Amino acid sequence: MQVFVTGATGWIGSAVVDQLLEAGYDVTGLARSDASAAALEKKGALVRRGDLDDLDTIRAGAAAAEAVVHLANKHDWANPAVSNRAERAAVETIADALIGSGRPFVLAAALSGLAQGRPAVESDPSPAVGPDSPRGGSENLALEYVEKGVRAISVRFAPTVHAIGDHGFMASIVAAARRHGVSAYIGDGGTAWAAVHRSDAAHLVRLAIEGAPAGSRLHAVAEQAVSTRTIAEAVGRTLSLPVRPVAPENAVEHFGFVGRFFAMDMSASSTWTREQLEWAPSGPTLIEDIQAGAYAA
């Protein structure tokens, strides 16, 4: 099977490409730079040069593939509207290219905003609808194409997809601890994040291509809820820093943009996902990774 992957050299995408190549798939990755193209070619993948705004290249890559995995995102936290527009345009372009084919289209989605006062479950619909919503409402947009003959599948990734080398939300939290000389949590530290190791997330993407039903919402979640205080305490032990609370109104000042997310409860279940695809996460836990020095460098 030929799989076209956007975000193929990103944090999750590079692990997905490795997983697919190891399983015997032919992979073509979208690459916006010479370095990204070289990294893909070194692994044995093919390359399509372009970026998230190059819709003609994305359309051609999707049309030529037997499956599409869309993981690219601008992540422009200073200008979220730019990221939202680009995400929606890319998803619409891919889905249009796959109409009537029955081919799998796996796209990345988020867990934020799905539930209040309980862990999110796969049956919770995304509240993000329309081009001006988070991620441009791309999950709901993609799932609309199921009725048009596209096997659209949303994979909602835990807020921390962790492993050695992670440069995402957890890296920003650790950076704030170094910057202030204190490992902080917000309020009473009772809010919690779901978590998943990068290798387990990549495995789930492959399983989604192979067997997830059209219209599925999957949760890439190995740990349902790790309290933000537990996270801060692990960081403090690893960096030999004191652990203290910060007031919610000071979260963004202390942590930067990631403070908005660290203050949110983003816990989630993956029971349905595990049962549906026989997915059994086996990688290290978030705290194990922190204590093993994944964020020490």
Automatic annotation (TrEMBL):
Annotated spans, Disordered: 118-138
Stretches assigned to coiled coil: none
Domain of life: Bacteria
SUPFAM superfamilies in the cross-refs: NAD(P)-binding Rossmann-fold domains
Domain NAD-dependent epimerase/dehydratase: 3-211
Protein's UniProt name: SDR family oxidoreductase
Organism lineage string: Bacteria, Bacillati, Actinomycetota, Actinomycetes, Streptosporangiales
